[in-house]
């Protein structure tokens, strides 16, 4: 591993670090593959789950608001649909929407953050454009997510594509700001100058030297973005502009089940909430293992 | 003198450019709100008006003017901080908005403050006492960033503390139903209550805030910890720390220094969170009956109230941009390398 | 992952101390919170017991102003406007014969309001109103005939007043029809004696509130000739003659109204009423059950039955004029075909909706006209039920042997309609209809509804003015903005003309004629009524006097504590 490609953002060579720290050798050197099991199971569930559920997730299969029991493991919702089948069936929609939104916003955010951050202090048009980009992203970040959602859903109708668009726009700004902050920090570091002096082209410096040292916070934030996707869907559901009913989708299920929870009928909202927590935590677990500094 | 100005030029320039940015944003907003489906005249009359009536209402609202004239009027009035009259309330949008922003700002600042305290304590425990059970809990909790929706926690809190245990006050606003709120001096409701010096009022206001603030801070602390824990770990490992340790600096000073260097990323997230909550706390505010700017924005959209939509968006964006500027300033104070004006090559 | 090396770090004892501090701080915070909370709950009870003369109502949305004719009257605004204003006549209340805890407005009887009495000319065309003497507005100005004439002039001159659109054909031109005779006498002239009942009903309703013309004229400007914008922007002004006055108003939080000492009628039993905005219906229900509010408005049927089961709370079971219905829009495919509309009427799972959505707090309506009207008959009305086979047959007859698909639009703000749409979607599939649910935010919904953009939609609505001609014309008048079904059928208009020519609509003869028109409209499935919904209020049993009104608002002046 070279200094430049470590994700730590620190220019200190690995060997020196170890010596300084004097920490005992640990068995963490290799990838702890078992930490990826939860995330893997989730993906598997999203892939095959909808074929295995006991009931049609969008059909009325029983008396509404039945508590969990032998027939309906997670109970039935206020429409009389099977909550277990819906929670499982929703995994596909939710993982797909959240994954596309999180990846899309992170990639776009990184590109915007690096390009903007590197050129901001430049003179002339390049600097002006970079500064305008930074300001535009900042303004975008300042517009409330719910309003962006309301406006886009009003314009394009409530569909998976619209929701993904909303989520990318909403998360993009934060991801690119995290990258930009790091870029501003590392761009003056000696290893960047060293790369330049070694004759690297500016674009290469940007993407091979600065980028790997600037993206860690945005990766740290990736799983949060994943969860944010589902939360924004729920918030849109509270305002009645989520995916059209009865599409199985955790956010909308939480939003519609929430009122019932206060009347002790907790299962309609509780199971999708648990699914949300398990999903985000699994992604975060896998993500932090991927980002862990190994030797 | 000159050098002080040069040093501070970048942020002074940004502050000076803020109105310009807002002006450009206002033009964009003007067109966007008009793209949102809905018709103010139909909303006003609940559809119970003839075509002639609807035309007359649109005339009154100036909606029949050519778009360019409407834009001109809007921008001209904007220069005088006049956002027009809300079709819903009949009040000046500016006064509507200005009276609501502090409500939300106060609530989110309090929630973020508590979240920051919780995040700092737990992250410190996770990094400095890595083998303790608290550290394990803290790390698990930090992975829950984005997994704990504030409104779920809000409902759970209401269910447990209000419905089942009955120890919390009813989530019906900032005060007991039969209390009258303190005279409005600052527009910040809690601050006004404190200024009134009325003990019963203050107690009521504080207890009404316990559940929403607890729910919000539990939801937001992991976002901060997610940046803080790796940041602290990295800085603990950094040469500066090693230098302090090697030169025999006190461990307290070391912890402070580690925090100082880990804080910028956390500040960015806090700023972003605060920014997104100015308009995004709406579900929580409505759940606890607290009112605020988010509710106003949502109502403006759902009643096709163009003036209110424009005004509320511009003010929210202005407030949030100011928050971002302050965050950048704080970042600069903590780590001068990040100064935008610093030479890069 | 890096862990802090014990050897190089801070001494162990100190670390432990700091952890202890953390735990202690957390414990302290928790105990402070709990002590605060329990102190709070006890003080709430004290306050409640020391001020029994104030009533707290949990209401779903915040009013934005209190001048009805200024438009944008969100839910509780209209209800509060009703408390602070008066009309010329009023419908009296009587004990409901369906619910022992409820009063019911008798919409076919009229008593004196701001007009002490009225008489009708021989030909039934001229109504003379004798105004009450010595009445003053909440601003202290004496009430005269000028206020009456001015109020109706405003309702026709101000485009945001809805009265002008719904008062046709009884009142079309106030300048010629409404005349001041002297300071305490006003006449209203109609062109057809058959409009008389509708006229009386119209002027008894919230849309016909009388305002203090002196104050409004003082504040009028050339751009605002009736002072409407001024009245809208100044919520605390007293331009009404009602039982209550606005005392304080905090948008998005609460509105306090207090009894009007100068009210012309009986002083209300409850001095102070606080409307609290509580957005979430489950929270409204819970705060009623916990005793923090006295009345919860607009609850879901499930919350009502839960609250009732928990005890201490009354909900009311009586027939109202509120209908949930499907509007198949008749000017576009597929519902331009009568057979397809009829097939739809057999594809709705009526019983399942009543059970699953309304939990029995609604019934399947036999007809659409108010069944308590004198002269009413339900003879010959079609009886629809969920019959997938029949629906498929009708679809095949209509030329759709493979079924029909359409988009069903619902307003996201009406959860019961969204739930009903889900039930319909699931069951109508077996009857040959593939339904795609199109959920719209409320502003987009009302714009699309008026523009006629949708293939079909679900509505929950009611006629406030309950006379057969008014009810029948409400959603069917040619070119009317309220003609949501866009169903303009000449046979129907012929039947209506026949009925209207019979004069008084409450005779048996007229009743039979309106029944024919009603039967035709339902046969044609111009609108498909699937639920007649019971009141959505829940009231603490310490409060008596709840009354059903045709406008479905709560009349606070009738309430009292036990």
From TrEMBL, chain A:
Protein name per UniProt: ABC transporter permease
Gene3D superfamilies for the chain: MetI-like
InterPro entries in alphabetical order: BP-dependent_transpt_permease (IPR050366), MetI-like (IPR000515), MetI-like_sf (IPR035906)
SUPFAM superfamilies: MetI-like
Segments of this protein annotated with the region Disordered: 1-23
Gene Ontology BP term (one): transmembrane transport
Primary residence: membrane
Biased composition (Basic residues): 14-23
A Pfam family matched in the record: BPD_transp_1
Upper lineage: Bacteria, Bacillati, Actinomycetota, Actinomycetes, Micrococcales
Keyword line: Cell membrane, Membrane, Transmembrane, Transmembrane helix, Transport
PANTHER family recorded: D,D-DIPEPTIDE TRANSPORT SYSTEM PERMEASE PROTEIN DDPC-RELATED, OLIGOPEPTIDE TRANSPORT SYSTEM PERMEASE PROTEIN APPC
Organism: Cryobacterium arcticum
Keyword check for Membrane: yes
Membrane topology of this protein: Multi-pass membrane protein
Domain of life: Bacteria
UniProt domain ABC transmembrane type-1: residue ranges: 91-287
From TrEMBL, chain C:
Record-annotated Solute-binding protein family domain positions: 109-479
Coiled coil: none
GO molecular-function term, one example from the UniProt record: peptide transmembrane transporter activity
GO annotation, cellular component aspect: ATP-binding cassette (ABC) transporter complex; cell envelope; periplasmic space
Statement: the UniProt record of this protein carries the keyword Protein biosynthesis: no
Localization per record: Cell envelope
Keyword terms of this UniProt record: Signal, Transport
UniProt xrefs under InterPro entries: Peptide/Ni-bd (IPR030678), SBP_5 (IPR039424), SBP_5_dom (IPR000914)
Superkingdom of this protein's organism: Bacteria
GO term, biological process aspect, one: peptide transport
Family: Belongs to the bacterial solute-binding protein 5 family.
Protein's UniProt name: Peptide ABC transporter substrate-binding protein
């Amino acid at each position: 591993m070279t200094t430049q490609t470590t994700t730590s953002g620190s220019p200190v060579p690995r060997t020196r670090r170890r010596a300084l720290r004097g920490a005992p050798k640990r068995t963490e050197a290799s990838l702890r593959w078992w930490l990826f099991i939860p995330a893997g199971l989730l993906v598997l569930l999203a892939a095959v789950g909808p074929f295995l559920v006991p009931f049609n997730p969008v059909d009325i299969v029983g008396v509404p608001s039945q508590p969990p029991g032998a027939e309906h493991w997670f109970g039935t919702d206020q429409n009389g649909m099977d909550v277990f089948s819906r929670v499982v069936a929703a995994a596909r929609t939710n993982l797909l929407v959240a994954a596309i939104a999180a990846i899309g916003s992170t990639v776009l955010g990184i590109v915007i953050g690096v390009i903007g951050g590197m050129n901001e202090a430049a003179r002339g048009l390049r600097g002006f454009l970079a500064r305008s980009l930074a300001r535009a992203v900042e303004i975008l970040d300042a517009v409330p997510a719910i309003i962006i959602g309301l406006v886009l859903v009003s314009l394009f109708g409530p569909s998976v594509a619209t929701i993904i668009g909303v989520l990318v726009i909403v998360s993009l700004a934060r991801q690119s700001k995290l990258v930009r902050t790091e870029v501003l920090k590392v761009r003056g570091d000696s290893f960047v100058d060293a790369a330049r002096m070694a004759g690297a082209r500016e674009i290469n410096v940007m993407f091979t030297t600065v980028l790997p040292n600037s993206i860690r916070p945005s990766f740290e934030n990736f799983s949060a973005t994943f969860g944010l996707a589902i939360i924004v869907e729920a918030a849109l559901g509270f305002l009645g502009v989520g995916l059209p009913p009865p599409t199985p989708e955790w956010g909308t299920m939480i939003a519609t089940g929430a009122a019932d929870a206060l009347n002790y009928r907790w299962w309609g909202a509780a199971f999708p909430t648990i699914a949300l927590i398990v999903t985000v935590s699994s992604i975060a677990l896998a993500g932090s293992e991927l980002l862990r500094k190994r030797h | 003198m000159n050098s002080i100005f040069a040093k501070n030029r970048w942020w002074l320039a940004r502050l000076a450019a803020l109105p310009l940015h807002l002006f450009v944003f206002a033009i964009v907003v003007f067109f966007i709100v008009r793209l949102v489906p809905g018709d103010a005249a139909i909303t006003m009359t609940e559809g119970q008006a003839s075509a002639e009536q609807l035309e007359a209402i649109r005339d009154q609202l100036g909606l029949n003017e050519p778009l360019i004239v409407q834009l001109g009027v809007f921008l001209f009035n904007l220069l005088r901080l006049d956002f027009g009259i809300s079709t819903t309330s009949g009040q000046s949008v500016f006064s509507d908005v200005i009276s609501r922003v502090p409500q939300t700002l106060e609530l989110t600042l309090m929630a973020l403050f508590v979240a920051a305290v919780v995040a700092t304590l737990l992250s410190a425990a996770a990094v400095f006492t890595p083998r303790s059970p608290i550290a394990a809990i803290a790390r698990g909790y930090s992975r829950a960033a984005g997994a704990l929706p504030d409104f779920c926690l809000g409902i759970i809190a209401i269910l447990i503390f209000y419905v089942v245990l009955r120890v919390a006050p009813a989530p019906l606003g900032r005060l007991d139903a039969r209390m009258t709120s303190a005279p409005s001096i600052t527009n910040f409701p809690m601050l006004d209550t404190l200024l009134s010096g009325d003990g019963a009022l203050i107690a009521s206001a504080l207890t009404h805030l316990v559940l929403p603030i607890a729910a919000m801070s539990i939801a937001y602390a992991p976002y901060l910890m997610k940046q803080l824990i790796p940041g602290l770990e990295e800085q603990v490992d950094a040469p500066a720390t090693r230098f302090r340790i090697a030169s025999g600096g006190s461990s307290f000073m070391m912890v402070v220094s580690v925090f100082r260097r880990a804080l910028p990323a956390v500040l960015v997230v806090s700023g972003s969170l605060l920014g997104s909550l100015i308009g995004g706390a709406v579900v929580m505010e409505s759940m606890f009956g607290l009112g605020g700017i988010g509710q106003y924005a949502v109502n403006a959209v759902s009643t096709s109230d163009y003036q209110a939509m424009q005004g509320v968006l511009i003010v929210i964006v202005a407030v949030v941009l100011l928050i971002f500027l302050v965050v950048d300033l704080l970042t600069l104070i903590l780590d001068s390398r990040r100064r935008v004006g610093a030479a890069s090559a | 992952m890096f862990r802090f090396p014990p050897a190089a770090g801070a001494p162990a004892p100190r670390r432990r101390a700091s952890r202890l501090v953390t735990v202690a701080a957390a414990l302290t915070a928790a105990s402070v919170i709990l002590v605060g909370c329990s102190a709070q709950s006890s003080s709430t009870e004290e306050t409640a017991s020391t001020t029994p003369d104030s009533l707290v109502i949990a209401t779903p949305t915040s009013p934005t102003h209190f001048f009805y004719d200024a438009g944008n009257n969100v839910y509780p605004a209209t209800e509060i406007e009703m408390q602070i204003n008066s009309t010329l006549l009023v419908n009296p209340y009587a004990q409901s014969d369906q619910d022992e805890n409820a009063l019911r407005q008798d919409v076919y009887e009229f008593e004196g309001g701001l007009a002490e009495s009225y008489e009708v000319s021989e030909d039934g065309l001229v109504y003379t109103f004798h105004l009450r003497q010595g009445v003053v507005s909440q601003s202290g100005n004496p009430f005269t005939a000028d206020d009456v004439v001015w109020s109706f002039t405003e309702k026709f001159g101000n485009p945001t007043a809805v009265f002008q659109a719904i008062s046709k054909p009884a009142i079309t031109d106030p300048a010629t029809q409404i005349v001041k005779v002297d300071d305490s006498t006003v006449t209203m002239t109609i062109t057809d004696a058959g409009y008389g009942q509708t006229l009386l009903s119209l002027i008894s309703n919230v849309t016909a509130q009388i305002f203090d013309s002196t104050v409004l004229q003082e504040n009028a400007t050339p751009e605002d000739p009736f002072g409407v914008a001024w009245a809208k922007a100044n919520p605390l002004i007293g331009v009404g003659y009602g039982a209550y006055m606005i005392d304080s108003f905090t948008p998005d939080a609460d509105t306090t109204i207090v009894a009007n000492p100068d009210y012309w009628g009986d002083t209300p039993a409850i001095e102070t009423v606080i409307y609290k905005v509580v957005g979430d219906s489950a929270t409204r229900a819970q705060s009623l059950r916990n005793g923090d509010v006295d009345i919860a408005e607009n609850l879901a049927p499930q919350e009502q039955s839960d609250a009732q089961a928990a005890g201490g709370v009354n909900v009311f079971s009586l027939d109202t004029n509120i209908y949930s219905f499907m509007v198949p829009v008749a000017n576009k495919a597929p519902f331009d075909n009568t057979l397809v509309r009829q097939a739809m009427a057999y594809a709705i799972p009526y019983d399942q909706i009543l059970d699953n959505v309304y939990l029995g707090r609604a019934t399947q309506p036999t007809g659409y006209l108010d069944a308590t009207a004198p002269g009413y008959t339900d003879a010959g009305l079609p009886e629809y039920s969920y019959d997938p086979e029949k629906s498929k047959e009708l679809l095949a007859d209509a030329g759709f042997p493979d079924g029909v698909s359409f988009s069903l639009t619902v307003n996201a703000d009406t959860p019961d309609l969204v739930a009903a749409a889900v039930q319909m979607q699931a069951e109508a599939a077996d009857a040959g209809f593939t339904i795609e649910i199109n959920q719209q935010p409320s502003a987009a919904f009302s714009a699309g509804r008026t523009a006629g953009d949708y293939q079909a939609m679900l509505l929950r609505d009611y006629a406030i003015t309950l006379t057969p001609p008014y009810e029948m014309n409400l959603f069917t008048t040619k070119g009317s903005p309220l003609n949501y079904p866009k169903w303009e059928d000449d046979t129907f208009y012929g039947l209506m003309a026949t009925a209207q020519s019979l004069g008084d609509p409450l005779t048996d003869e007229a009743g039979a004629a309106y029944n024919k028109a009603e039967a035709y409209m339902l046969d044609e499935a111009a609108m498909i009524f699937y639920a007649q919904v019971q009141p959505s209020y829940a009231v603490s049993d310490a409060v008596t006097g709840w009354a059903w009104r045709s406008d479905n608002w709560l009349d606070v002046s009738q309430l009292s504590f036990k």
